[in-house]
Automatic annotation (TrEMBL):
Domain STAS: 17-107
Pfam families, sorted: MlaE (PF02405), STAS_2 (PF13466)
Annotated transmembrane regions: 137-155, 175-194, 278-298, 318-341, 353-376
Domain of life, source organism: Bacteria
Annotated CDD domains: STAS_anti-anti-sigma_factors
PROSITE patterns in the record: STAS (PS50801)
Protein name per Swiss-Prot or TrEMBL: ABC transporter permease
Signal peptide interval: none
UniProt keyword annotations, A-Z: Membrane, Transmembrane, Transmembrane helix
Protein species of origin: Falsiroseomonas tokyonensis
Length: 381
C-alpha cells in the first residue's frame, strides 16, 4: 500500500507514494511523489501549509517523483509556494509544469466584481408591473390571432381538421365523464348534508333540494367542471404544445407555411368550448342524484324532491349555467394553448407551462364567475 512519510517517519495516509522533508544546503527540501489529485490534496493540505508557514530556511518543493497533478493538487502546490518566502518548485515533468502554469494563470486572473444586491422595492414592483402588462398584451394578441383564425375557418371550413377536433373532444370530454360524475355526486351529497343540518333547526329540510339545485345549476356545476377541465385538459394542452415548442416543431410548421394556430390551437379551443357544457350538465345531474339519495335517507320521497326542483329551478338557471360553462371552457382552452405556445427553453419549460395553464385557468374561471354573478344580478337573470 502506498503511504506518505514525514521527516519524522510518521505514517500519514495511503494516497501517495511518499512525502519527505529534509534539510539540504541551508534549505528545506519537500520531496513529493505519486499522484497529487483532489483526494491527496485534501489529506496533504493542512500539513503542507504548516510546513510552508514555518519560519527559517527557504522551502524547495521537489516534484521529480510526481507522476501527475490535477487542478486541485496544483492549487495546493502553488498556495504552499506563495506561503513560504523564497520558496520554489523544481524537478517537475513537462505535463506537471503545464498544469501548474494554467492554474497559476487562473489564480492570477482578476476576480469578477461582486455586485451588491440592492433592496429596491419600487424598481422591483415596476418590473413586475411592466412584466404583467407585457404578458397581458401578449395574451390579448394571442386571443386576437385565435379569433382571426376562427373567422377564417368559417369562410374556409376545410382548414379545420375534424379528426383532430374529435380526438380532443374524446380526451377532454369522454374520458373526463367518470371524474365529473364522481365529483358531482360527492358534491351533491356534501351540500345536502351540510344544508340539512341548519335547516333542520327550523323544520325547513324540505327546501334542501331547491337550495342544492339552484347552487349546482347556476354556480357550482360550471365552476367545478371548469376546475376539472383546467386540471386535466388545460395542463395537457400546455404540456403537449410546450413540448412541441421546445422541440421546435411549431417553428418547423411555420417554416413549411402551415399555420400552427389553425392546426394546433383551433381544434383544442373548439373542443374546450363544446365539451364544457356537457361536463357541467353531467356534474350537475350527478350532484342532483347524490342530493336525492340523501333526501331519501332523511325520509323524503323522490316525488317530493322532484316537485321542489320543479317549483324553484327554472330553465334560465340551466341555460345560464351552460352559457357560463362555455365561456369557462373558452378561457381555459385559450390559456392552456397560450401557455404551451409561449413555453420557453430548457428542462423546466414544459412543467412551468403546465403549471401556468392550471393556475391561470382556475383564476380565470373564478374571476369570470364573479363577473357573471354581478352581471346576472344587474340584468335580473
Amino acid at each position: 500500500m502506498a503511504i506518505w512519510l514525514w521527516d519524522d517517519g510518521e505514517e500519514a495516509g495511503p494516497l501517495a507514494e511518499s512525502l519527505a522533508m529534509r534539510e539540504e544546503d541551508g534549505a528545506r527540501r519537500m520531496a513529493l511523489s505519486g499522484r497529487i489529485d483532489t483526494q491527496a490534496a485534501a489529506a496533504l493540505w493542512a500539513r503542507l501549509m504548516a510546513e510552508a508557514r514555518k519560519p527559517g530556511a527557504p522551502l524547495l518543493i521537489d516534484l521529480a517523483g510526481v507522476e501527475a497533478v490535477d487542478t486541485t493538487g496544483a492549487t495546493l502546490l502553488l498556495t504552499a509556494q506563495s506561503a513560504a518566502q523564497g520558496s520554489r518548485i523544481e524537478g517537475a515533468s513537462p505535463g506537471v509544469v503545464a498544469v501548474l502554469d494554467r492554474v497559476r494563470d487562473a489564480l492570477a486572473a482578476p476576480r469578477p466584481a461582486v455586485v451588491a444586491r440592492r433592496f429596491a422595492p419600487l424598481s422591483g414592483l415596476g418590473r413586475r408591473v411592466v412584466g404583467a402588462l407585457n404578458g397581458g398584451v401578449e395574451a390579448l394578441a394571442f386571443l386576437g390571432e385565435t379569433l382571426v383564425v376562427a373567422l377564417g375557418t368559417l369562410i374556409r371550413p376545410g382548414r379545420l381538421r375534424v379528426r383532430e377536433l374529435l380526438r380532443h373532444l374524446d380526451e377532454a370530454g369522454t374520458r373526463a365523464f367518470g371524474l365529473a360524475a364522481l365529483l358531482g355526486a360527492l358534491l351533491g351529497v356534501i351540500l345536502a348534508f351540510q344544508s340539512a343540518i341548519p335547516l333542520r333547526q327550523f323544520g325547513a329540510e324540505i327546501f334542501v333540494p331547491s337550495l342544492v339545485g339552484i347552487s349546482l345549476l347556476r354556480e357550482l356545476g360550471p365552476l367545478m367542471a371548469g376546475v376539472v377541465l383546467a386540471g386535466r385538459t388545460g395542463s395537457a394542452y400546455a404540456a403537449e404544445l410546450g413540448t412541441m415548442t421546445v422541440n421546435e416543431e411549431v417553428a418547423a410548421l411555420r417554416i413549411m407555411g402551415i399555420d400552427p394556430m389553425a392546426l394546433l390551437v383551433l381544434p383544442r379551443v373548439l373542443a374546450g368550448v363544446l365539451v364544457m357544457p356537457v361536463l357541467s350538465l353531467l356534474l350537475t345531474l350527478a350532484g342532483l342524484a347524490g342530493m336525492a339519495l340523501i333526501m331519501q335517507l332523511l325520509g323524503f320521497q323522490l316525488n317530493t324532491v322532484a316537485q321542489q326542483l320543479v317549483n324553484f329551478v327554472s330553465l334560465k338557471d340551466l341555460l345560464g349555467g351552460l352559457f357560463k360553462a362555455s365561456v369557462f371552457g373558452l378561457a381555459i382552452a385559450i390559456i392552456g394553448c397560450r401557455a404551451g405556445m409561449g413555453a420557453g427553453r430548457g428542462p423546466r419549460a414544459v412543467g412551468d407551462a403546465a403549471t401556468s395553464a392550471v393556475v391561470g385557468g382556475i383564476v380565470a374561471i373564478v374571476v369570470l364567475d364573479g363577473i357573471f354573478a354581478v352581471l346576472f344580478e344587474r340584468l335580473g337573470l
